[in-house]
Amino acid sequence: MNIQIFGKSKCFDTKKAERYFKERRIKYQAIDMVRYGMSKGELTSVLQCVGLDALIDPKSEGAEILQYLAYAQDRAEKLYENQQWIRTPVVRNGKKATVGYCPEVWKDWE
Fold this sequence. Notes:
It is built from five helices and four strands, in the order βαβαααββα. The protein has helices at 12-23, 40-50, 52-55, 72-81, 103-109, and strands at residues 3-7, 28-32, 90-93, 96-99. The chain is α+β, with helices and mostly antiparallel strands. A four-stranded mixed sheet has the order 2-1-3-4.
């Protein structure tokens, strides 16, 4: 397993996700979304798994602009430029990915 957790330091769900893997002694790589963000390839891979709507944080300020863009490609590009609009944590395991706290899915990865 190659677990990556993209999250924010002040995000409660990110801390819960890290604790989930820590308690099970599963190694993971924690990546600070604010400081480093996702590469274009990583974001594309996550988009293919979860879809664009699941990735958008409805509480984030400014994200409502995405609903006015007609094409999914434009919306994905705008999301890449404004990664603070991404809901956290984003947990990747190779080609698989989840958004938010999803222990029921992670259990199947073990």
